[in-house]
Every structure is written in structure tokens, then in C-alpha cells.
Amino acid sequence: MMETVIRKNNDQIIKEAREAFKGQWGNVFLAFLLSTLVSAAIGLCVSLIMAIIYNVLDFVFSYRLMELFVVLLIIIGAILWLIFQGRFWIWQNSYILRKSRGEDVSYSDFKTIFEGFKNINEIKASLLNKDQLIKNLLPAIILLLTTVSILLGHVLLVIPGIIVSFMLALVPFIVVEENNINPMDAMKKSADMMDGYKMKLFWCYVKLIPLAILCALPCGLGLFWFGPYMSFVIAKFYDAHK
Question: Could you give the angle at the alpha carbon of 158 between the alpha carbons of 154 and 160, nearest 5°?
Fold first, then answer.
């Protein structure tokens, strides 16, 4: 005899998210702000280092060799940027998921973002070893594929874009819990988990529209609270359907 799985309804999910979010806004907002600022700083540092290297090499090599070096610098810079963007994305979603579950999460976990890039030998191993490089790029590849899929859906028509966004809504938390999962497997698993529940997520969003409007009224300042709160709602939705 098959066991019937009883899913929580949207009211229960929203209530659990609200209770879990009590007293957590400051921590979550700081986590978002910290990862955003450090991500921007890393991007700026990579750009500055590449510019310095370019200017130094410009005095040494011919124009044709410089063209080759420029291409190599762009590729290396893009790889570094993608690696850290993916890691920041994972860290943010891991922080949200664990906080929503009531876990005591320390900001010291932030240092894991820089694993493999703490000295020259680690950097060489991270960038020159093919398997390690692919492993480092996986989060960014999943983020890019998810974003592109949603954008393509919106390019076709608004409704397909919304459907795709609902299908892939759980990808971030799947990637957090299943380390090194294949990008297509992560997207497929989210689609499978959301099979039959896309309208449920839609109505969950609808229930929160009045709150979103209320948060937007004071010059939009309330949205700084609403964004982190919504991340808890999605985390609770994930836990209710995994």
C-alpha cells in the first residue's frame, strides 16, 4: 500500500517562514550585503590586476603577442569571476537555508569561499587542474544555465518565462545540499520537485503581494526587509516539497 505524502499548504509555509525570520533580518541582510560587497571587491581587484599585468607586458612584447595576452587575460579574469560568483551564490543560499531551519550559522563560514585560493600553489592547482577547475566552475555554470533558461522563457513570452522560473525555483537549495551535482541534474530535479506545485508557488506569491505593496510604500525601503523574508519563504517551500 502506497503511503500518501501530505504537503504543507501555503498558509503553513508562510507562517513557518515568518516565525523563522523573527529576529533574523539583521543577520540575513548583513550576509547579503557582505557577500555583495566582497564579490564586487574581488571583481575590482581582478580587473586591476589584469590591467597592471597588461600595462607591464605592453612595454615588453610586440602588438601581435599583446593581442594573445589580452585574450588570455580576459579568459583568466572571466574564470576567476565566475568561480567566485558561483561560490558567493552557494554561500548565500546555504546561509538562508540553514537560518530558515533555525541553525546557528556563523559568518566564519564565509572563509570557505576562498578555499583553493589562499596561496600561489593552491591557485595553480585550482586553475591548472582540469577536474578541479570544472568542480570550481560548477556553481557558476548552474547559476548561468538557470538564469539563461528563465530569460529565454521570458523572451519567448511572459507566461513561459514565469513557468520556467517556477520550475527552477528550487535549484539554489538543491545545489547547496547536493555538492558537485551536475547542472542539468540540478535543473531536472527542481523541475521534478515542482511538478504539480508550480501553481501552488504562484498562489504563495499572490498571498504575499499585499505585504510586498506595503513594504514598497515608504519609498521602497521596506523591500530591504521583504527580500530576505521572501528568501525564507522559498527555503520553507523547498523543505516542504523535497
Answer: 75
